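Q: My labmate handed me this sequence with no annotations at all. I'd like to see what the chain might look like in three dimensions before we decide whether it's worth expressing. Could you predict it?
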Amino acid sequence: MKQTQLPQAAQWTVEETFTQVKGQAAGLTSAEVTQRQADVGKNELASKRQTTLVEKFLAQFKDLMIIVLIVAAVVAAMTGEVVDAIIILLVVILNAVFGVFQEAKAEQAINALQEMAAPNAHVRRDGETVTVKSDDLVPGDVVLLEAGDIVPADMRLIEVASLQIEESALTGESVPVNKQLAPVTDSQAGLGDLQDLAFMNSNVTYGRGVGIVTETGMQTQVGRIAGMLDNTKERKTPLQENLAHLGKVLTGLILVVAVVVFGVGMLRGNESLINMLLTAISLAVAAIPEGLPAIVTITLALGTTRMAKLNALVRRLPAVETLGSTDIIASDKTGTLTQNKMTVEAVIVDGKQLPAKEAAGATAENDQGLLATLLMLNNDTKETADGLIGDPTETALIQYNIDHGVEPEPFLAAHPRVAEIPFDSERKLMTTVNQMGPDSGYWVTVKGAPDELLKRVTHVQSNGQVVELSEDNRQQLLTINHQLAVQALRVLAFAYRPVATVPTTLTSAAVEQDLIFAGFVGMIDPERPEVAGAVAEAKAAGIRPLMITGDHADTARAIAIRLGIIAADDSAGVITGAQLDDLSDEAFAKQVQQYSVYARVAPEHKVRIVNAWQQLGKVVAMTGDGVNDAPALKAADIGVGMGITGTEVSKGASDMVLADDNFSTIVVAVREGRKVFANIQKAIQYLLSANLGEVLTLFVMTMMGWQILAPVHILWINLVTDTFPAIALGLEPAEKNIMAQKPRGRTSNFLSGGVFGNIIYQGLLEGGLTLLVYWLALTFPVHAGSAQIHADALTMAFATLGLIQLFHAFNSKSIHGTLFTKQLFKNKAFNWAILTAFVLLAATILVPGFNSLFHVTTLDWFQWLIVIGAGMTMILIVEVVKLIQRSLQRN
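A: Here is what I predict for the chain of 891 residues:
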């Protein structure tokens, strides 16, 4: 089993920490710093050697399909078709350049981690407080922290004064952690539970503290993530696997057919060596879909453009198609499923719970108004031109009043604070003393943890009256607090006490006593309003949403239930990181399908979860916005980063970035991905059936000893009648039921779903019809003379093979659906592509000079009628087969 390694420093006392790191309260000396820097190096993140642009460029040519294309270019050049050779090589080079660009962008993830480091740190050295660059820190340095600082290294805290540190980018928790000095004894504690440590790149939001550096550079928690990110192997996308498989199959078939034809021809003894070599080359040219990589790239690029308009920014083209095959969407909670801001959810006054919208603000003259007043007075939030600044919990309390029409600045000016006892993590309370008016005396206001505050309460506000708090009432309030906590609400209790004068002794014992309980406030980082609908749509499409978070299990469960990720009665759907540590990889793989919510997890847990689902053959999309998400984003089949709240690290490790941080945009992207796959599949069916028809035509002509189509004929057909319609098929609108289908998964490929069978019979049909026209031209010639008869037959075969592919392009607009729908002519690009291809094909026969260049003759109307009739027959037969296929599927 894999245990999450608890930093040893969390278990040290303050005294032990000084001993372990060989430090002292006055700080290190300059000589000690120099020596330790020589021993441990700079406090910075390292990465593995990055490849050069030349190495990246050359690596693009290792793909089998690219090698096949290069061979096709050589073949074209050998047969004199220099223009076609140049075009094919240009496609290869453009693909390589694009691949280099995408790979270079991906390497920015580690660079972004390095740039996140705090630029400076305040440390004690040689007995003085000085400012140094953070990369100069060494273990043993004593660092001073205050609100607004970025923690420059991992450290054990040795002094705290109301210190709170926001660690969401590392742990996934949206609420800042209250730091304390007591060592952690729980060996199962997660990073979010280590209250005596401060971690590199986290943010100090409140208070101040002093820490002694225990780890620097790659030994820090962020450094461990950088190491995981740098060493995570990128999996091939389903698209890349499909194309690689297709390339291998095509290469094998091409070689076999070419060798067989060459061998048979030489054995017959009717052809010279050079003629049979040219024939074998013609077959290779016919079989190679040289336009396929370009068509795939263009289709993906068009999908990328459409998705960008929908706020889904794709960094790697194959990610577009990968989305369409997604089985699992593993989503970070904070900032992705939720809004990443604390919000007042419920107000509890006089034992009654009210939704925040239905409760009253501070100006109301009732018990709710009294509680709302305390929310304003006992608060350190600052209002600026940029909004509310302060602890997220406190800003939520001020925002509650703003939402109820109470402006903070004039209200607080009318009730100025005259004294306070700051919050500390031991007593878990904060107290202010505010003047309530010129003749109204003062109020002591107290907020904090309900169990601690209720110990100091003697009375309760009820229906406008102050009554004594009985022990039964105290237990009832504690029960309410527990019920709110089960709902994953963060609960704060509020109390007050009127005093005639400002207390002279500002201590907890003197001031925080004999309090009047005013009520509870329940807060939560709420779910995004659109996410529940997106989750439901994903489930309807056969996609399983997962929640992965650093928050506590109760919080995660409550949010998951509200979003519909798990049912309210699902008691087995949640697992914590500590429980996951107790499972071996084998045991977890057997149980992984039980869980939809993963709580209190560390970065390595996220990668392990992604890997477990991938081992089941699932295509996994992982969303996230924090540094802690980066390794899993890179390990997933498609990593989805957040554009607004996401760190540069998470964006750099992602395949796609959501510009609006909207989970529902993922579902839109899935729909687009499915459409892209469907359109590429249509193009592949069209191209390979056309190429099979060409191969069959040449093979039979060779075997029969007939005059065969020359390489120039095949190349021209491939250029004009293959490429333009195939590219236009990439613009086909999505079919109506595309999101009602189950995910294809990793085992599916472009030849599945009946496509392979379609390619075979449609290719045979194309070749058979072309050979039939050729035979008819030879058997029932229109013109006299052997040379003219053969020239006419060859021209009719050339025209039929080209024209029949244009007719078949309409068949390929849907794999199984009929072409006779309202969508038939909706794709304007397709209509223009067919028209352009027809003109270019006809020009080789009808335009003087062109026909001699292509060694063809002019056909009369009767011959054209036969050619067009063959194309119409292709449509008729395929439509009948589709009708039978649909009937079989229904039955």
